Amino acid sequence: MNRIILASGCAFALGVTAVAFVGCEDTGLISSNFDASAYTPEGCGFEVSPATETVAGFDDGLGTGTPDHVHVSINSDASSTVAVNWRTNLETTGTQVLYGTDQTAIEAADGPGDGVSVQSGHWMNFEASIFDTAPTQIHEVHICGLSPDTTYYYKAGSPGAWSEVYDFSTAPTVGSTSPVRFAVTGDSRNEPSIFAEVQEAIDAEGVDFELFSGDAVIAGANQGQWNAFFEAESGNGFKAIDLLARTPLMVVNGNHDNLQVNYDAQFAMPQDKVDGELLNGEEWWSFDYGNVHVIGLNDSPEINAISQPQRQWLEADLAAVDRTSTPWVFVVHHKPTYSCGGSHGSNLDIRSAWQPIFDRFEVDIVFAGHDHLYERSKPIRGLQGVEGQLAEAGVNGTPVDQSGTLYVVAAGAGAPLYGADDQCFHTEVAESTRNYVIVDIQDRTLEYTAYRLNGTVLDSFTYSK
Ligand SMILES: [Fe+2]
Fold first, then answer.
1. pLDDT in tens, 11-49
2. CATH code 3.60.21.10 region(s) in the chain
3. Residue 9: how many other CB atoms lie within 10 Å
4. Residue 388: pLDDT above 80?
5. Most CB within 10 Å of its CB: which of 24, 86, 127, 448?
6. CA of 277 to the centre of ligand 1 (A)
7. Is 372 a catalytic residue?
8. Distance, CA 369 to ligand 1 centroid (Å)?
9. Ligand 1 center to residue 336 CA distance, Å?
10. Which fold has domain 180-464?
11. Among candidates 429, 374, 463, 335, which has minimal Cα distance to 184?
């Protein structure tokens, strides 16, 4: 049975295995997916596309499957937009979010009304892989036109089948000097319960958003592992999703996530596709949050890191940053530019591809994972192609200031720990331990703390600019 509905100014013909995309730009009948199609969510100034390798369609309000795995992310302007993803059974093609600032109204609503807004989005179905026996149905909604620095309440689903009500807060306007606090972690992989412990600790810190440096699962095509990631629960009974439903998780692709459709479909990173970029423009991304600019890159496989399109985009993105309004610039990617860890160590290809750009634009901190440990470099400026030449470039491990970029490895939120080593010329601190990082920005002052999972401080410093 096919149905024709109108939504966001576009008409969609939805079938069981086929989607026709009619009345929008880039339209056409695509039998297996509509990755080539894009639509502008109502009220938004950007286009989004369903993940490649999915059968997809637009909200039709139908289905009684209760959402789970509900989580939010930043999809564009963090002060006025948010993206929500969730999972349902295969029969549910209703893809709506009810939202507003009145918690009681949202809790009572079964549709839009007084104090309750609705936004529709798209659903995506991807087939079973060799690891799984069942297909998966993921939903994605992009909301725009929100007020800055405001707490909203929302629930996801379709009439009669809503998630519980969660809250999230928008960012202050770009350039605001309001405090910003964010967390960094990565490499959950093998042990979801440890990932949930890390999330429990981060939840207690009350962060604005979280950066995840890749390798959420061991095998990116194994949806069972992704289900375990989203359903992770700590020994104390803390559910990771209770943080992820309220706090944007900004992810980059790791070699284990491997650019799989599961990764693509279940996260909504800012889509601003350039030629040569995978994941419909979500392979690399950036956003502003108050006076902070954050960039996410993809280094897996390395050929994508050294590719011209990503390097050109990185240069252009950094060149466009107004450091008077967003003086703080952070980068997150997976494979470390600098690491003394014995299992992987520094990735010299990535170093030579990206460090000259980080240097030129004086990036403050570059976060990575992949080596399951904690490590912070000395401040580094000047490409180090050969180990041992750092002193010649004027890097001496003096107290942290703006003289160089810091390279941090903050990984092991579930993956087996690797041995750490602090004897490399570039290493300031290294320890083989479960960890997470909290960064506080107060106007022109940065306060940095890395914690062990038992809550003790592993590394800390403060600097101002
Ligand atoms: Fe990795």
1. 333 333 333 333 233 222 223 344 447 899 999 999 999
2. 180-464
3. 10
4. no
5. 86
6. 20
7. no
8. 7
9. 10
10. Purple Acid Phosphatase; chain A, domain 2 (3.60.21)
11. 374
